[in-house]
Design brief:
Length: 205
């Protein structure tokens, strides 16, 4: 009976070491001609239009006090038990996330009210900076999501959006445009499969 020879990783490690030690200079990023990118006569109107086509709803408001009034007319908000507000000047939440260390404790959150840095007219997305999120899961675990963003911080397209982000302030940040949806199973559209079931966006001055 032949004796099995133990496998050796010496050759493989030598290859990996050579790859690790080799400095490869990649091609630089392309220069974007911003004057040739898509521009809109009314970017706010375009944002509202695009957000509507993907299932979200936008509200143009003049004062943050209107947020509570509008949300109060939505039954699933009026009946909500656990609301996390990261925009306390607009909405007083019923759950203090500062006292929560384990994100699993947020599994039953009904609403998250988050703050957006800027919005993109081209695709109806809002950039949410991770530094504003005590737990990043709040954007995805809540049944319903509302984002407050200034309409003065509207950009026309994603080229401008990424230029605006530059080097992110924190390791986490995300473009949000909702609600979550999938049609993988029998081509049947399901909302809220991987995130919020509905998205409300409040466009402040």
């Amino acid at each position: 009976m032949l004796k099995k020879t133990p496998a050796t990783t010496t050759s493989r490690q030598a290859v990996l070491d050579r790859l690790t030690g080799k400095h490869v200079v990649g091609p630089g990023l392309p220069t974007v001609a911003f004057d040739q990118t898509v521009q809109f006569d009314d970017p706010v109107a375009k944002f509202i239009e695009v957000l509507s086509t993907v299932g979200g709803q936008a509200h143009v408001i003049d004062d943050v006090e209107q947020i509570g009034q509008i949300l109060g007319e939505i039954p699933v908000y009026a009946n909500a038990k656990r609301v996390v507000s990261l925009v306390p000047e607009a909405i007083a939440g019923s759950l203090d996330v500062a006292t929560i260390d384990d994100p699993h404790a947020l599994a039953s959150v009904d609403w998250t009210i988050a703050r957006g840095e800027f919005a993109v007219a081209e695709n109806g997305a809002i950039w949410v900076e991770g530094a504003t999120m005590p737990h990043r899961v709040l954007l995805f675990i809540a049944q319903y999501l509302a984002i407050v963003v200034s309409r003065s911080q509207m950009v026309h397209n994603l080229h401008q959006g990424y230029a605006r982000i530059g080097t992110p302030k924190s390791p986490f940040g995300v473009f949000v445009s909702g609600p979550s949806k999938t049609a993988d199973i029998e081509q049947s559209l399901v909302l809220g499969a991987h995130g919020c079931r509905a998205l409300q966006v409040f466009l402040t001055p």
